[in-house]
Amino acid sequence: xxxxxxxxxxxxxxxxxxxxxxxxxxxxxxxxxxxxLGFDSIEWIISDFSNPIFDxxxxxxxxxxxxxxxxEISSISLDLLMPKTLNLFSDKEIGWIFENINKIAKKVKLxxxxxxxxxTCGVRxxxxxxxxxxxxxxxxxxxxxxxxxxAIETDMTPNAVSHFLSHKDLQKVGVLLDIGNAAAYGxxxxxxxxxxxxxxxxxxxxxxLSGIGPTVPLGRGSAxxxxxxxxxxxxxxxxxxxxxxxxxxxxxxxxxxxxKKFIDDNLIIQISNS
Length: 274
Hints:
- With 274 residues, the chain is an alpha/beta fold.
- It has a single domain, classed as Divalent-metal-dependent TIM barrel enzymes (TIM Barrel), CATH 3.20.20.
- The protein contains 9 helices and 10 strands.
- It has an 8-stranded parallel β-barrel with strand order 1-2-3-4-5-6-7-10. The protein has a two-stranded antiparallel sheet with strand order 8-9.
- The longest helix has 22 residues, at 252-273.
- The protein is globular, with a radius of gyration of 18 Å.
């Protein structure tokens, strides 16, 4: 079943002046509010090593919140890996992250963990490309992923993503495709769909202006929503659609409601009718 999720923090004001960051003050209440608004699940953001998911007592509270709210944690985004490329993290650091995730995965119905390979941790040369490939392959060999899949979120071109995932040790790795980022970088969804459609495990829904422009309300940027609505059923391994949409500090609730209505009217209805 395809789940409709929202990224943590969309129902909260900014934390530490950052648009996307773990909502330290409101993460508990967001579970109930997101469920009330009609979401099935949430994408948990790990912004740093102080995240509650790394604490046994807090893990029990998270499991209880999932049960009480009826809102699952469909995915976890490892934003704490953003400061540097993946190959520069030690096996011990990565192992500790997944050791803690594995404690909670089955109980919250986790289906995906996303590893960023973009922006500050993106690959910009052939040597780094190869090192990150090898590091990700090593992560897969050293850690257990029985309960969920691994996906990368990346600003590489569709062709480069296809090449990256062709590595013999990365055959089970998928892609978290951000349609807003794709539009901002000038990448066409048709290139993703024609080359790696079976690798797309999740969609980040947002809208941005082309030319690496800012995030804007859905329908006001360059994201190819018409193409997506017509072709989304070709993504045979898609597990969730996750809103990572525009918000303001003053009207974040209204912003999220408007984004959900846009998706209900322009995308979900297409899936339901197919």
